[in-house]
């Protein structure tokens, strides 16, 4: 499937979905977020990043992000795959317009493993794995520009990360007004904040299985970056600690926190699938 064709199609079909809750102060949940106010990434900076083009039953084409965590699995957000029929993973690509992905894999709904307790109405357990066993990643070929990334272990708590700087990358919509996705991979650095600061805005939709990232100076995730992994550096090593889940409907540049699915509570669930024979 042509990456350039999909890019052209998405320019006119980026969509977002919001669900309003009375408990949220003048806000609502939204998924399919992208990077606003980002910095251009270097070619080899995010080798684990995947672009996910997802076709819905309604024939809408949606865009999400994923992270390579093994030669057989990509991790992303469960809400990306509601009412899915098929999808394509593009890995090893940096500029969506100028490059052909060295790895592109067509997947069916049967290849996606949603958390069994995922709740689409609240985004609880918003986590999924895509099985690419039929066409595993080859990390030995440097021309592929792909590499896996570690997931932080279950021993790390939310409080351990508060105050640390997280890095999130994505392609696409860079302002609230601009509906076109970005050709270039962009990233932002932002502070991980206490869950209390998210509860002030999002109420009881925030749980211990979430993590929140501060958004300021109009730098945030925005349309299309759902499922992207939040990267942190611990003892000199890079890990992903969370997946983009939802944010405020008011816009990407309003300095509301971004809410993630926190990975340590799901560490055993992930390993039970990834390490399955």
Automatic annotation (TrEMBL):
<dbReference type="InterPro" id="IPR051333">
    <property type="entry name" value="CLIP_Serine_Protease"/>
</dbReference>
<comment type="similarity">
    <text>Belongs to the peptidase S1 family. CLIP subfamily.</text>
</comment>
<dbReference type="InterPro" id="IPR001254">
    <property type="entry name" value="Trypsin_dom"/>
</dbReference>
<feature type="signal peptide">
    <location>
        <begin position="1"/>
        <end position="18"/>
    </location>
</feature>
<dbReference type="InterPro" id="IPR018114">
    <property type="entry name" value="TRYPSIN_HIS"/>
</dbReference>
<dbReference type="InterPro" id="IPR009003">
    <property type="entry name" value="Peptidase_S1_PA"/>
</dbReference>
<dbReference type="Pfam" id="PF00089">
    <property type="entry name" value="Trypsin"/>
</dbReference>
<keyword id="KW-0732">Signal</keyword>
<dbReference type="InterPro" id="IPR001314">
    <property type="entry name" value="Peptidase_S1A"/>
</dbReference>
<keyword id="KW-1015">Disulfide bond</keyword>
<dbReference type="InterPro" id="IPR043504">
    <property type="entry name" value="Peptidase_S1_PA_chymotrypsin"/>
</dbReference>
<dbReference type="GO" id="GO:0006508">
    <property type="term" value="P:proteolysis"/>
</dbReference>
<dbReference type="GO" id="GO:0004252">
    <property type="term" value="F:serine-type endopeptidase activity"/>
</dbReference>
<protein>
    <recommendedName>
        <fullName>Peptidase S1 domain-containing protein</fullName>
    </recommendedName>
</protein>
<feature type="domain" description="Peptidase S1">
    <location>
        <begin position="35"/>
        <end position="275"/>
    </location>
</feature>
């Amino acid at each position: 499937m042509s990456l350039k064709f999909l890019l052209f199609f998405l320019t006119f079909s980026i969509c977002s979905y919001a669900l309003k809750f009375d408990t949220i102060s003048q806000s609502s949940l939204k998924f399919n977020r992208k990077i606003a106010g980002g910095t251009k990434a270097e070619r080899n900076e995010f080798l684990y990043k995947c672009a996910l083009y997802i076709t819905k039953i309604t024939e809408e084409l949606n865009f999400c992000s994923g992270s390579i965590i093994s030669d057989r699995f990509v991790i992303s957000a469960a809400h990306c795959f509601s009412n899915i029929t098929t999808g394509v993973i593009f890995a090893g690509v940096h500029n969506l317009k100028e490059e052909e992905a060295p790895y592109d894999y067509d997947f069916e709904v049967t290849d996606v493993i949603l958390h069994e307790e995922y709740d689409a109405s609240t985004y609880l357990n918003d986590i999924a794995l895509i099985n690419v066993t039929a066409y595993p990643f080859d990390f030995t070929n440097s021309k592929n520009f792909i590499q896996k990334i570690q997931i932080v272990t279950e021993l790390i708590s939310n409080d351990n990360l508060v105050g640390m700087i997280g890095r999130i990358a994505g392609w696409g919509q860079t302002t609230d007004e601009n509906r076109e996705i970005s050709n270039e991979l962009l990233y932002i650095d932002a502070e991980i904040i206490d869950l209390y600061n998210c509860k002030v805005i999002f109420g009881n939709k925030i749980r211990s299985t979430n993590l929140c990232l501060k958004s300021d100076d109009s730098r945030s995730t925005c349309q299309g970056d759902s499922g992207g992994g939040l990267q942190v550096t611990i003892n000199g090593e890079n890990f992903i600690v969370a997946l983009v889940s939802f944010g405020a409907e008011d816009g990407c540049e309003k300095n509301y926190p971004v809410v993630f699915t926190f990975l340590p509570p799901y560490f055993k669930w992930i390993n039970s699938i990834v390490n399955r024979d």
